[in-house]
Amino acid sequence: MTNIAQYAFTAHNKVTVLSDGSKLTSSDFDNKCKFKIFRFDQIKFLRKRIKSNFAHNFLKENKIDLIFFDSWKSIELLNFNTHAKKICLVHGNEILNQRKKDRILKSLNKADLIIFNSNYTKNKTIKNFKILKKIDYKIIHPAFVEKILKSKIIKNKYDLCTVARLEYRKGHHLVFEAMSILRNKYDIILKYAILGDGPELSRLKDLVIRHSLHGQVEFINQDCPIEKIFKNSSVHIMPTLTTPESIEGFGISNIEAASYGLPCIVSNSGGTPESVGNNGIIVKENNPKELVNSIIDIFKKYKTYSKKSYIFANKFDSKKKIKEYLNIF
Predict the structure, then answer these.
(1) Which of 144, 181, 263, 301 is the most exposed place for a label (fewest CB within 10 A)?
(2) Is there a single domain that holds both residue 105 and residue 201?
């Protein structure tokens, strides 16, 4: 949603954003943006209604062409007839909640068009909500690349890196298992950088000790710029898992990594394979041995994979991508 707003404004559109979040902690970001951002940070029960009332009044007073809703929850309380086209994004996890199926369906039916972030998410949604076959939809992979950073291939500080929230489904623990096998069986010592925050942090630190990987794994402070990690790493690895309550709808960080020439190793879980082209390797879900083989293979053909990464990332050029969203009708 941030990219849609920023690049739509850059393409000379008038943009207004209604967003949750603290006005205090978001002020630095908001001040840098040249379009209007209205923040709503009340308690959840009040916030939804206050934001909805604000939106209704705003639509009455302004001529709007397109409205992008970040999820079904955002469009749920819209009860105002408007000529603006209503576009709702579906990312993946939100459509797993069968207890809210009726609410989700009612909300999505208010949209003129649904944008899925991958073919996998589309198929999963249609399977869970069969009536959705009647709703118009498009599939747009939600990654924006501002520039392709080409540089000479040098010895990087990190062999592997993962830029992702620290959740079980991201598969960091599987990378640890693969690194342990590489060290014990092949005498290959790799350095692995992890940038992210989340509920898995403590468990992952315990696993580093259990696998005797201290000195090989580095947890990077959240304040570190993402581009610094990509510039200092050779391969981006994210062997995602599918759990009953969580799926990986796409894999934006794989595209970002590719724009720095990093090949990617991912699993066949969810929509993750759609974030990698011929610039990487897709392994079976939850399979450390396949991860080991893919790591060995990708370094053997590193220059070839790296060149393909730049080519693949170019498909997500921000100017091309914003046209997909803005010209969707």
Answers:
(1) 301
(2) no
Phi, psi (rounded to 5 degrees) for 279? -95, 10
- Same structural domain for residues 128 and 270? no
Assigned domain for 151 exists? no
How far apart (Å, rounded) are the C-alpha atoms in residues 207 and 218? Answer: 13
As given in the structure block, the two tokens for residue 103 are 């609410």
Strand partners, 243: 246
Structural domain span for residue 47? 2-145+318-326
pLDDT tens digits for range 63-96: 999 999 999 999 998 988 889 999 999 998 888 8
305 and 168 part of one domain: yes
* Interatomic CA distance for residues 249 and 222, integer angstroms: 23
Task: Supply the pLDDT for residue 153.
Answer: 55
Confidence band, pLDDT 50/70/90 cuts, at residue 23: low
226 lies in some domain: yes
- 262 located within any domain: yes
Whether the CB-CB separation of 178 and 295 falls below 8 Å is answered with: yes
Contact call for residues 75 and 94 (beta carbons, < 8 A) = no
Please state the rounded mean pLDDT for residues 255-261: 97
Q: Is the pTM of this model over 0.70?
A: yes
CA distance 67 to 318: 20
Domain presence at residue 171: yes
Q: List pLDDT tens digits, range 45-63.
A: 899 899 999 999 999 999 9
The verdict on 177 and 53 lying in the same domain is no
Name the token pair of 301: 């053909």
Q: Quick check: 252 and 281 in contact, CB under 8 A?
A: no
**Calpha distance 256→117 (Å, rounded):** 16
* Segments in the chain forming alpha helices (H): 2-10, 23-32, 44-61, 72-76, 101-108, 119-128, 172-186, 201-210, 226-231, 252-258, 288-300, 302-313, 318-326
Q: Provide the CATH number for the domain around residue 126.
A: 3.40.50.2000
Helix axis angle, 2-10 to 318-326, nearest 10°: 100
